[in-house]
Amino acid sequence: xxxxxxxxxxxxxxxxxxxxxxxxxxxxxxxxxxxxxxxxxxxxxxxxxxxxxxxxxxxxxxxxxxxxxxxxxxxxxxxxxxxxxxxxxxxxxxxxxxxxxxxxxxxxxxxxxxxxxxxxxxxxxxxxxxxxxxxxxxxxxxxxxxxxxxxxxxxxxxxxxxxxxxxxxxxxxxxxxxxxxxxxxxxxxxxxxxxxxxxxxxxxxxxxxxxxxxxxxxxxxxxxxxxxxxxxxxxxxxxxxxxxxxxxxxxxxxxxxxxxxxxxxxxxxxxxxxxxxxxxxxxxxxxxxxxxxxxxxxxxxxxxxxxxxxx
Amino acid sequence: xxxxxxxxxxxxxxxxxxxxxxxxxxxxxxxxxxxxxxxxxxxxxxxxxxxxxxxxxxxxxxxxxxxxxxxxxxxxxxxxxxxxxxxxxxxxxxxxxxxxxxxxxxxxxxxxxxxxxxxxxxxxxxxxxxxxxxxxxxxxxxxxxxxxxxxxxxxxxxxxxxxxxxxxxxxxxxxxxxxxxxxxxxxxxxxxxxxxxxxxxxxxxxxxxxxxxxxxxxxxxxxxxxxxxxxxxxxxxxxxxxxxxxxxxxxxxxxxxxxxxxxxxxxxxxxxxxxxxxxxxxxxxxxxxxxxxxxxxxxxxxxxxxxxxxxxxxxxxxxxxxxxxxxxxxxxxxxxxxxxxxxxxxxxxxxxxxxxxxxxxxxxxxxxxxxxxxxxxxxxxxxxxxxxxxxxxxxxxxxxxxxxxxxxxxxxxxxxxxxxxxxxxxxxxxxxxxxxxxxxxxxxxxxxxxxxxxxxxxxxxxxxxxxxxxxxxxxxxxxxxxxxxxxxxxxxxxxxxxxxxxxxxxxxxxxxxxxxxxxxxxxxxxxxxxxxxxxxxxxxxxxxxxxxxxxx
Lengths: 311, 552
Description:
The complex is a heterodimer of chains A (311) and B (552). Helices cover 36% and strands 21% of the residues of chain A. Chain A is an alpha+beta fold and 311 residues long. In chain A, strand 1 (100-107) and strand 2 (110-114) form a beta hairpin. In chain A, helix 4 (214-224) crosses helix 7 (292-304).
């Protein structure tokens, strides 16, 4: 990083496009500023009081033609820029299917990350290079914002829902994480770092720090939290969980959703957000009941249930 | 009145006692004279300008180093909240409308006063009562939510005086609404004979447009603040996620007001600058009618762009696209206005007195502020720069570089009219030039820091940004000196300044056809208007008295 111009490196697949847009706009703005400031200076000099310049009135039609002309030109130019920027964002609408799902919990003033292997870390996030990553984030208190300048990505983290952010790291190294939404006393100290390593290294790291018994621990928690009472194989009260992960779920209101990590988490913490078709909204929210660790373990357990299995 | 725009004021009028004659305190506090009410507001907002400025000064001092020096994190958080609340609601929003609007609107349309003089003084009292709640919250220990009062932080987590501050802003809102209603009615009903809608000076149009925005938007802010107060004091679950509330709802309501509020701050500035540029370029405003349409367009479309503050807040991607599109549309009329001001200089006879320097400074800084507005209207760039110093720099270019420059321009332009005194021209020009350079010096580095990823509302920041913070703080000290200068030379002028003639700038406009300072009733005989505004070409071509082309 250059000491005088501390621009963060382009460390994600998305960052290159953002910088291109930005520097193109810097160029366009520079051009417009040169024209406007240039005209002001030229007119100020040429038409200063006492100069010999021609000052007769403009013909009556002149003003209207010019106005319509530059209004249309400005409108077209702005629509062009909008289309370019909107097109660049459009690509980013749908999360990739093969993304690595990581749970993020924000609270005053720290970041907690939980990997699929059960590995947990605080204020540090290990990620494999070149693999799309999807963060499923929620907050335990106020609104925070997960911001990695080197990835040119930012997303507010809300306390009442699971928000997702996805990107693909493309550079090895460590990159700062900052909280971008004001969240109280130590807002400016709520930072951390992303550590991008090779996929092989990530696999080793995640294995070493992971929890092989996570699905088993999830099964225990499943019983302890009383989930089994309704989600038992033939209860009929609640949808079956075996084979649920990755399937398409039909919801009330004629919607369908893919049962991914974020869906499972949302269904535990905010069950009324998505009601499976044909079931009553009887499940209570487990927000504040199931800990963040419980949620990770439950998700791992549900993922481990193959179709035709027990619950 | 004759067609010659710079004719002398009738003898009879010059001997009338001026509006400043009476000296008792009650004659000021309970006055119904729009000119005196303008002066009362000027005093109030000057006080708040320096309070808000003091908070900014302390912040810039603290930010010279990347570590916490003389402020604790909580103190720093209270300072930026104070700076925002005071500058937005107690300086910028009332500034031009309540001071210059009150002082000038009746005179500009040839009326004796506003439509509702009692409501007008009530507006100042309501403002003062609201302001005292906010001052109380500051003395009691301050507020730490940021001026945006985001939930659930403000309702469930903050341990500061949120209720008093929100109540202060809530009450002040009624003052804004009263002022808006008064101006709308005055402009509809008070116009003198011959003052048709398309003969109104652009300043009157600007105040008209802004009054409509005030009347429509401020109640929405009031509802947002009322909900915060109810949730905090009565624990009504509105935004609390634990009881099914939606914290994001607050942001939608808040920005539905606060984006139009940006136009409440900048539309009057556009009006002031149009008056000044026409006068010192000795030329009519290029495309007068398009300037009017542009202001109406901005006021209307400004209500439909609030979601561009929320691209990363968790709103739908498709909603973001629509808001991005509308933000580009609302930028078109602003661009047209810049082109028109520039074109108004063409074939002019330009002089560079202090008001003109402020006005030209406004055009330059507003152009930069507007162009960077396009950056943040683009979703991919905004995702990176929102909540960073890039956004801070962008909106300061609009509100400080734009609105505050225009406020000072208008202050200097109409100072001789309001006080009957002239000020030291050299000192005023120096202050205008220092404000321009000091401003750029302070805020341009913040664009660079912002794109490099420096988040806003950070007391402790990565040391790599220090050089840019030092530059910014150095610029702020130049700016502080520039802002103090008018206090001295205008204060001097008030007592020792040379007496001003009725029309020192040889400007058109009815406010110049009455003595400086004006008599209580403005005009003895209601003036009659026979042509459009900015009738400056008659001066260059004395034979030419045809109706001015306002660009149909």
